[in-house]
Amino acid sequence: MRVRKRAVGLLLGAGVLFLIGTNVQAGWLFVLAALLLGALASGIVLAARSLAGLEVEVHAPAETRQGDETPVDLVVHNRGRAARWGVVASDEHLGGATAWVGTVRPGERVTVTTMRGAPRRGEAHTGGAQLRSAAPFGVAERRRHRPVDAATLVLPRTEPLGPLAFIETTTSRETATRTEPRRGQGREYLSVREYRAGDPMRHVHWGLTARHGELMVREFEQERTPRLAIWVDTESDDVDRLDRCCTVAASIVDSATATGAGVRVAAADPDGPALVSRTHHLEYHRWLARLVPTGIRATTALGWLAEGPLQGVGTLVVCLPVWEGRPLDGLRDAVEDLVTVVPRVVLVPVTDPEDRTVWTPLRTIGAQVLPWAAGEDLATALGTGERSPAGVG
Description:
- It is a single chain.
- With 393 residues, this protein is of the alpha/beta class.
- It is built from ten helices and 18 strands.
- Strand 13 (262-269) and strand 14 form a beta hairpin.
């Protein structure tokens, strides 16, 4: 229990009244001094019991998104036999909040809804909340910590991007150079052959049919879904930088899945590359929400990536934080190796506003560089880069 400044004021006031009453022999001043001392004593005694019987709960949604306004309920339950006044509840879940609860009568449950904006992506767990009260006279404040169990998965913040040219215009190197064209229902003309049972009549080539005297049909190349891989650098232990990289990845996932592109998202894990693919876009967001810094060097992780997870990928997006003083020589060599494996490599360096040139050495390695500085619009950063020739940021 903490004595407040008001208690000191009451004590000094009582002392002054007693001193004046002694000098002037005024009995009513002694009465006032006694009243002040009584208020002080009773306020301290009653404050010691001001939170007895109170319990608190924190009710939060299972999922939210970083920065979004999220309702969180603080519920105070009075299991005691007396009313409790001037109750204030606070907790640190999703950025924390303090709420005035007021009076809680015996057996009553008082719910106060607070709006919060989660400042961090990831798994948010809160195990305790605080109740406090200075009732009835505000001379002393009683504080009690109560256990709670609140858990929320905070998904990374996203920004609307719209269609991205490096997703729409790129097909897989595997289909382009490692395998023969396959027959299918695409739009690319492949060849002409004799009619077979089950062939659509709309594919009949009537000119050749008349020339050969038998039905001839057009064959078309199988339509291939563009394949996109996104790699997130987890080397730095700066959570702000990792949050921004995850924002880039989640935003590109939304844009790619909206156009029907196949997506893989990868990051470094102590046992090798961690990978998620062929799932709903929210599952990608949940996977990104759980990413934590690993300290694994980006050069090592990109080397793992080139050994297998990129098979059949047409575009690789590398999301990495770049800051002044970060060595880029080894990173540049690793990306150069990736350029020989993947038809298109797009680097998205996440930089601080003042660090606008540290990513310049990455522009000479044959990859497209689209830097995103803090405070800039992500869609503008990616769209502006697409208006430049490949390999020029």
